[in-house]
Specification:
The structure is a single chain. With 160 residues, the chain is an alpha+beta fold. It is built from four helices and nine strands. The protein has one domain: Beta Barrel (Small Protein B, Chain: A), CATH 2.40.280.
Length: 160
């Protein structure tokens, strides 16, 4: 008899959404994993993949982290007694030591906190946050040039 897989059928990847624009716009120095405080309709929408991280960012205030600008589109079959807010501010759950370190880096050293990916981990939604520095235009061009050169190298090696 074959072994049963522990994954649910049709679950595929555990990644919900990626912020590809962040890697283009910023140098990512460190990565952190944070939980998110969500409402029920938001979790259902995340299961359907109705989320957009592109224009969102992490804001630190009063010793807490919040995710701002993330659009979670509500399902049509959402509850009738709840009025969903797709762009509401969502609280992020981090350890105190991580929060203190992030507050120091953002305030003193001029770093930015950018959401990189949203994914499932043990049945809970997690957000990957990147501690980042902004790229200048010439840095973006150089990154693109290196990426093109790597792609060309792979083509040349494959042809031989």
């Amino acid at each position: 008899m074959a072994k049963k897989s522990k994954k649910q059928p049709g679950s595929g990847s555990s990644t919900i959404a990626l912020n590809k624009k962040a890697k283009h716009e910023y140098f990512i120095q460190e990565r952190y994993e944070a939980g998110i405080s969500l409402q029920g309709w938001e979790v259902k929408s995340l299961r359907e993949g109705r989320v957009q991280l592109t224009d969102s960012y992490v804001f630190l205030r009063n010793g807490e982290a919040a995710l701002i600008g993330t659009n979670i589109t509500p399902l049509l079959s959402a509850s009738t007694h709840i009025k969903p807010e797709p762009m509401r501010t969502r609280k992020l759950l981090l350890h105190r030591q991580e929060l203190d370190k992030l507050i120091g880096m953002v305030d003193r050293k001029g770093y930015t906190l950018v959401p990189l990916a949203l994914y499932w981990k043990k049945g809970k939604v997690k957000l990957e946050i990147g501690l980042a520095k902004g790229k200048q235009l010439h840095d973006k061009r150089e990154t693109e040039k290196n990426r093109d050169w790597d792609r060309d190298k792979q083509r040349i090696l494959k042809a031989r």
